[in-house]
Amino acid sequence: MAVNKNSTGYTVTFAIILVIVCGALLATLATVLKERQKANVSNEKRQFILVAAGAYKMEELKEMEQSQISEIFTNKITEDVFDVHGTSIAKEGVTAFGIDIVKEYKATKNDASIRKYPMFKFTDGDNIKYIIPMAGNGLWGPIWGFIALGKDKNTIEGVVFDHKSETPGLGAKIAEDNFQDLFTSSTKKIMSGDKYLSVNVVKGGLKNPEHEIDAIAGATITSNGVGAMLRSGFKPYMKAFGLVN
């Protein structure tokens, strides 16, 4: 019996089969790509941490295989996680690498007292860096950074910032070398003696150069967001290091 391809039944049946096949293909593709996407996100995080530590340039890491970066990371990085009081909670099964700093910031935005604070320690012989990740708000979305402190646990020795959707040529400049180099071209410290000052982003010139960075021209809200992120972000770690009560 010939099939009437012009009938309503045929059209409906064909549409149902097409939807089922396409749905199955999309579901399979999503599953496959999800694992690849997770691997890429993890690789980018390792890159940020190693760049902040001054171990490699981003251009070098982009030339490496993910497995090579993972091996370097495993050999040179150890982790810890603190609560707001600077007490280690890693023993409770929480891993620093497993914490998404942006999601953690959003989830605890109204109650930072329950926030988890991950830290990564880079060790290469006598070269020791403490890499602190943190997140905050820019103009159009979240901003985040990885800031490396030196062996004294106080002096900034490397930074990497990134963002989700800041304005190109303005707020997006936080991810550029010209802004990030301001943190290491002259000495920037978190503590002033036993007083917690952190680092602020200011307009109109630096009055306290060890604790201030010039704001980005035309990007006041993003600059303020970076400053707020830094001012609040370091304190639990200073408590963990025993530098502040």
Structural overview:
- The chain is of the alpha+beta class and 245 residues long.
- Helices cover 38% and strands 21% of the residues.
- The chain is built from seven helices and nine strands; from the N terminus they run αααβαββββαββββαα.
- The strands form three sheets. A five-stranded antiparallel sheet has the order 1-2-3-4-5. The protein has a two-stranded antiparallel ribbon with strand order 6-7. A two-stranded parallel ribbon has the order 8-9.
- β4 and β5 form a beta hairpin.
- The radius of gyration is 23 Å and the shape is elongated.
- The protein starts with 7 loop residues before the first helix and ends in a 5-residue tail after the last helix.
- The relative contact order is 0.11.
Termini Cα gap = 87 Å
What string, H for helix and E for strand, traces the elements in order?
HHHEHEEEEHEEEEHH
Which word captures the global form? Answer: elongated
Strand content: 15-25%
Report the C-alpha radius of gyration, rounded. 23 Å
Question: How many β-strands, per DSSP?
Answer: 9
Oligomer classification: single chain
How many DSSP H or I helices?
Answer: 7
Structural class: alpha+beta
What strand line-up does the widest sheet have? 1-2-3-4-5
Report the uncertain regions: none
